[in-house]
Amino acid sequence: MRVQFWGTRGSIATPVPSMARYGGNTSCIEVRSAGGTLVIVDCGTGGHWLGQNLIAAGAKGLRGHILISHTHWDHIQGIPFFAPLFVPGNEWDIYGPKGLGQSLREALAGQMQYTYFPVPLDQCGAKIRYHDLVEGTFDIDDIKVSTQYLNHPALTLGYRLEADGVAVVYACDHEPHSRMLASGHGEITGQDRRHAEFVNRADLLIHDAQYTAEEYPAKVGWGHSTVEYVMKLGQYAEVKRVALTHHDPLRDDDAIDRLLASIRARLGENTSSLDVFAAVEGQVLELAPSHEKGCARRAGEQAQMPIELALANSSVLLGIADTKMATAFSKDIQAEGIHVEFFSDIDEARKLIAKDRPSLVVLEHDPPRIDGMETCRAIRQQGNGHDHQLPVVMVASQEVQAPGAATDVTDWLIKPFTGAYARTKIRAWVLRTACQWMREGYPEDEERRLARLPMHVQHRRAGPRARGSRPLPQKETEKKRFPENVISTDKSVLLWMYCREIAPFETPTFSEKVGELIARATSTPSARL
Ligand SMILES: [Zn+2]
Ligand SMILES: [Zn+2]
Questions:
Q1: What is the per-residue pLDDT across 145-190, written as a single tens digit (0 to 9) for each?
Q2: Among residues 148, 147, 209, 199, which one has the least CA distance to residue 9?
């Protein structure tokens, strides 16, 4: 497998002489298998030069794949300037994390709207296919790709590519889940261990290392790693080589040299065999299979799944006493198109879990005011009637290290955090649960539950309620228009998806017209108005 770095800078391009050695272009990596499969990971400004290189090589009918980690500018700004997308006869597949409201294609098209760029995305000459990904695995010809969510204020996927007997992992942008680990100290547990499993025994780990442990306290929640964390991760996961990348735009070449020298000295003191380097723009690596250990593909699920049906009726249960925080959460979650329910005691929580089968529970832990850990244990005792465990995200000022805490709490949201961070974490867990639903099959009464969906549209228009947001009472005319028994599952899902798209723009007249169309399309002759 051949890997070439075309962009190694984080956040913003830095075309200045003092940073020319490690490179000023933002994230872009080219990967080629021995069989000739071309995969590009991220397409920051470095993508422009990769595109020029591919055109200069004169390939006709070029076929390639672009994996996007997330749609922050420094990972997609090369796309409008990636010349092979404009050549008729070329074929490209672009992959990225599936959003809840917006597809990958829509997000990429956004930066090419008339206001920002002269050519819209849909007028590129090449044939482009878009793939919205969730966590899982899929094949790109002879390359096996695994995906996993990273910890960043935007929904972000890490990619593990396996071919020719080697494994390369790309993990940008990512912040340690545990703040303690950012210093390079502490135990790798919980979601950090999950991350370590993802990068396990990679022949090459290309990892976000934007900050140092010293700089980190001022950058908490920005969604990036420290060099110290990457070192600890690399050693723990028995990675062979680590490429530090996503270099901070304020760190010049000499500073990167000094940083690297100090890391290597520390590794030497610990007699670690980890091979660490700072990625250089233009650098090429030829990876050969290791003799000591092969790389086993992680047992994974499909990363491309039609999870709309499972997402259609997703809800999040909130056990939060702080009114300001509860309102902010409710607003953020509803902005994702997800239904919100509140509860104030464990009995109410139990009832709602049994009735609504939420995708996620968010609890607050701030004793003695509210004991989220106790609620979490009570929820765990009840179970949720599924093969998978209901994810519980705990909002607290620090992780609780009590016995059993690691197994009870699925993930932590440590205060202070930004709305974007909370929203992304919730989005990732809702998508994970939706995928698990797909894998284990829908609940038996899913059809009946989905048939209620027009009422959710009605409810959303009415705005959030302070507590217990059950559907509002139906008016007589609406009962006639949406009789539960005449909407088939397929139709109701399509219609609900349609309603979700138009809901933000609806006016009473428009809504009325759509309602009539839905009723006509789905009713039996006798039920027609
Ligand atoms: Zn970035
Ligand atoms: Zn980012």
A1: 999 999 999 999 999 999 999 999 999 999 999 999 999 999 999 9
A2: 209
| Spatial separation of the C-alpha atoms in residues 171 and 198, rounded to whole Å | 10
CA of residue 12 to ligand 1 center, whole Å: 8
Q: Does residue 381 contact residue 364 with C-beta atoms inside 8 Å?
A: no
Ligand found nearest the CA of 245: 1
* CA-closest candidate to residue 360, choices 395, 323, 404, 403: 395
Distance of alpha carbon 269 from alpha carbon 229, whole angstroms:
17
Residue 320 burial (10 A CB sphere; 0-12, 13-18, 19+): buried
416 cis-preceded (ω within 30 degrees of 0): yes
Cα distance from N-terminal residue to C-terminal residue, the chain: 64
The Å distance, Cα 156 to ligand 2 centre, comes to: 8
Global pTM value: 0.82
In 3D, which of 3, 45, 39 has the Cα closest to residue 27? 45
Q: Ligand 2 centroid to 515 CA: how many Å? A: 40
Radius of gyration in angstroms for the set of CA atoms belonging to the chain, rounded to a whole number: 24
Q: What is the pLDDT of residues 88-129, one digit of tens each?
A: 999 999 999 988 778 999 999 999 999 999 999 999 999 999
Q: Which ligand is nearest to the CA of 153?
A: 2
Structure tokens at 65: 């794949």
Q: How far is the CA of 23 from the centre of ligand 1 (A)?
A: 15
